[in-house]
Specification:
By secondary structure, the chain is an alpha/beta fold. It is built from nine helices and nine strands. The protein folds into two domains: 167 residues, P-loop containing nucleotide triphosphate hydrolases (Rossmann fold, 3-Layer(aba) Sandwich), CATH 3.40.50; 104 residues, K homology (KH) domain (GMP Synthetase, Chain A, domain 3, 2-Layer Sandwich), CATH 3.30.300.20. The strands form two sheets. The chain has a six-stranded mixed beta sheet with strand order 2-3-1-4-5-6, sandwiched between helices. The longest helix is centred in the last third of the chain and has 18 residues. The two termini are 36 Å apart.
């Protein structure tokens, strides 16, 4: 039996649906999803196994022009996905343009010209017309003539199965990179962090969600219960007050929503305690960024 395996890396501009596509292809909710840009901060692997294949999907932060050190690290994660891709999924959506982060697109063009299999994904086609879609296909074919174009709706799962089959066909022959029962490269604590951060993105506005990092301090798994203590770090005392809310109401709401999703993720009852602390200007502090896992080494 011939076995195929490879790295399938998902890149593109912010808010084009990369995480929704990753979850649809993997069949698990690994990447958090919100309508806000910069939801994904890390490079997250999702591993799909079959008897004769292993697909190692990689979700990455949206490509952006960095304004502080954290965003520089996020851009490094996106650029690293161009180095080890066997198949590259460049995701766009109907409002996307070629001049948005044009330097990154040029790197994708060079990869395609050099022989890397590049699939140009036009996502969210349920939000456009057939006439517009036809013009988008023509436009992107002109931009990336070596790429194969796939119009899909990751949200509605339209075209995802066909894309999955095309990716499988494009994988090189080789042994699996990970054990066949492994779903991701991230530990359980990482997904707790991400679920809590997702609820912060959904419940707070303006700069608050982008100034926050979450860290699990304690994760104790019992037969029927997981006990979790997690800290929400923000940059200023004024942000701490907003996150906690009047009489702790805002923090309780985040904790309740997060606990339900964590229980769904692990299939166990969860006791979750949240704390809020200030870590001044952590987004611009290299040592703190390394501590929080924003480092490629």
């Amino acid at each position: 039996m011939v076995h195929k395996s490879g790295f399938v890396n998902i890149v593109g501009n912010p808010n084009v649906g990369k995480s929704t596509l990753m979850n649809a292809l993997v069949g698990e909710r690994l990447s958090i999803i919100t309508s806000k840009a910069q939801t994904t901060r890390h490079r997250i692997l999702g591993i799909v196994n079959g008897e004769d294949f292993q697909m190692v999907y990689s979700d990455t932060p949206g490509v952006l022009s960095p304004n502080y050190r954290l965003q520089e690290k996020m851009l490094e994660f996106s650029r690293s996905a161009l180095v080890d891709a066997d198949v590259l999924l460049y995701v766009t959506e109907p409002q996307d343009t070629a001049d948005r982060n044009a330097d990154f697109l040029e790197k994708v063009k060079r990869m395609a010209a050099a022989g890397t299999r590049v699939f140009l994904i036009i996502n969210k086609i349920d939000l456009t017309t057939q006439e517009t879609l036809e013009s988008l296909v023509a436009f992107w074919h002109n931009q990336l003539p070596e790429a194969e174009i796939f119009p899909i709706s990751a949200q509605e799962r339209f075209g995802v199965a066909q894309l999955f089959d095309a990716i499988k066909e494009a994988l090189p022959v080789g042994p699996p990179f990970f054990p066949k029962d492994q779903l991701t490269d991230k530990p359980a604590r990482f997904f707790v962090d991400e679920i809590i951060r997702e609820k912060i993105l959904l419940n707070y506005d303006k700069e608050i969600p982008y100034s926050v990092e979450v860290e699990v301090e304690s994760f104790k798994e019992e037969d029927k219960l997981i006990r979790i203590d997690a800290v929400i770090y923000c940059e200023r005392d004024s942000q701490k007050g907003i996150i906690i809310g009047k009489a702790g109401s805002a923090l309780k709401r985040v904790g309740s929503q997060a606990r339900k999703d964590i229980e769904d993720f692990f299939g166990k009852q969860v006791f979750l305690q949240l704390f809020v602390k200030v870590d001044k200007d952590w987004r611009s502090n290299i040592s703190r960024l390394k501590h929080y896992g924003y480092d490629l080494t």
